[in-house]
Amino acid sequence: MRISNILLLFFLIFYNSSFSQNTFCDNFTNVNKVIQEFHYAPKTVDDSLSNYVFVSYLHKLDEDDLILTKPDLDSLQKHRYQLDDYLTNQDCSFFEEFYSVYKKRLNDTKNILSEINVTQLDYSGKDSLHYYQIGEKRKEFSYADDTKELKRFWSKKIRKETIDRYLDIADSTSIFSKEAPNYAQQIISNELCTIADKLNDDVSLRKKMQDWFLNTFCSYFDPHTNYFNNSEKSFFDESIHDDFKSIGVFFSKNDEGIVSISEVQPGSSAWKHDMVSEGDEVLEINSNKKKLDMNCIGVETLYSFIYDPENTAIQFKIRKKETKEITDVTLKKENIHVSENTVDSYILDGSQKIGYIRLPSFYTSEDFGMGCANDIAKEVLRLNKEGISALVLDLRDNGGGSLQEATDLVGLFIDRGPVAIINNFQDQSDIYKDYNRGTIFSKPMVVMVNGHSASASEYVSAALQDHQRAFIVGSPTFGKGSGQIIRPVNPEDPKAGFVKVTIEKLYRITGKSWQKSGVIPDFELPSALSGYGKRESDYKNVLAKDTIVKKVYFKFPSAKNISSFQVKSSERLAALPETATINHIKDELKRYADDRNPIPLTLKAIESREQIFKEIIDQLNGLHAKNTFFTIENTEAAKEILSKNSDATTIDDSKKKSLSEDFELIETYHILNDIIKH
Predict the structure, then answer these.
(1) Could you tell me the end-to-end alpha-carbon distance of the chain, in angstroms, rounded to an integer?
(2) pLDDT score recorded for residue 236
(3) CATH H superfamily, domain 243-337
(4) Please, where are the H alpha helices in 467-576?
(5) Which CATH superfamily, name and number, covers 341-576+625-677?
(6) Which residues form the PDZ domain (predicted)?
(7) Would you say residue 253 has pLDDT above 90?
(8) How far is CA 6 from CA 61, 96, 100, 201, 643, in A?
(9) pLDDT of the residue at 266
(10) Which of 298, 356, 664 is nearest to 306 (CA)?
(11) Is 204 exposed, middle or buried (0-12, 13-18, 19+ CB in 10 A)?
(12) pLDDT of residue 138
């Protein structure tokens, strides 16, 4: 190669690297500016921040301590307490060292896996595994001393996953010693593909690592402050709207690395196209003259490409599941109705006719200016026509959404008055109110919640509880008492991304907060998984729980005496076989989690341990209550809609069956029955 060409190549590489570095540094600076200006409780940029970002970023790069080594950590330690200074001085040259180390280790890991692939793996029990207890605080880093030890770590991982896969899919005629090498090769192939996806091109890897770094930096301020690239922003928008521009296709990847269409969303452009079906294999994807390499592609990379706002039309080359015909399909992003974000309503028809509404999220609708509160109102009016005596609003597993929709929803059930107190990043308090007289439903009401009911769900539950308008049934909620907005990192550069930043804390009209503690139910139900799911208080850097002094001109209704109802509920629960089963499952889960004995890497030992866990899960999945108290019926309006759609009817029947066996819903029905009869 001529010297001039070598110099030109060097210049281009250096230019691209420095250009990327400068862009990253601008984004780093601007992300911090957004946070410092708008965050509810901005923190000083100091060594504490630097240490947190350093540790958390390395955990993000190597979540299982299987890529980096102790010498790598030693070489990067000089940056541990300097990241704050780099930000102040707008010096982002440090990133190149993280990038170089990580990229080198990814390539080294490819070599390690290739070596293991031609090695006979030992399942005799010479090596053993140690299981961490759920919630246990682990070492800061558990890196291998060198490549040799790293290879041993990987070998143990491959052997464990080989045994797991054999136990998952092998039948009674299978012989482990014969099947294991094939399973191990598949697992190694998938791991190699995961690495290949990361190493696909330098620009992509740099961008991913920079995005991960910015998101790690944001999380120092609180767990709900995040950095979004454009694709992540589009994905987030879809999760909080009931209509959104999308092609309406979901994907899955099997053990052989084949990407196929797992679901086609009704009403989408894919759904309207007669050449796109579930099970079709995806061979090629193009958009805007960009082609996605399907060899070893990760599903995350695929979705990132699909959700990129610049890619408004996606070209697919697919192989049909049935005919194996290969065809080209172009799908344009269109506004579609996100069915997962819409309400379900039924009648619990027994000695009392009780309405039931499930709200999965507090979604909005940009096109029509109406969201979930409007949909709930429609369903309540339909249920009223059916002559219901009480209402259940099910907010279990509802992670939140629009606070405006939540305020409007509370307003449906209270006759004017304050809903919540909001304190913003400028330490200014405001009282959110319902200004409308009258309600659309005035009979007894219950809100069902659990540990996954968060944010707007807690906002609604707390407001209805404080107004003595609804009783709360279930388990303590998640404990997120803060609100966020999304700000562009740089308004002049649409590719710079966005920051979802916490700008306010939410308080009950009493001045108390549910931050960290959650909303405590009036009627608490037993839960087999209590203590095992992550709640707000389990995260690092959470905002503190406090109270606020704010004069709320509101005459609080007298507290209702519900002690007799609570006693009846406790007595019912104590006598139920389901309660005994739940307590047994909790005991078994604790015993399983507390077992710290090392497990030999043998088929028999791992099968024995996994069998214990499988039996626990089978008990949990088999927890179907016997219901002789009510049937689940559709409203007349729903019957008319379902009569024209057989697919929707099948889905609806499945939902009704699940609800009819819902232990918590049955007890909620009894609680409302007691209240109605009182």
Answers:
(1) 92
(2) 67
(3) PDZ domain (2.30.42.10)
(4) 563-575
(5) 2-enoyl-CoA Hydratase; Chain A, domain 1 (3.90.226.10)
(6) 247-287
(7) no
(8) 33, 22, 21, 20, 71
(9) 62
(10) 298
(11) middle
(12) 61
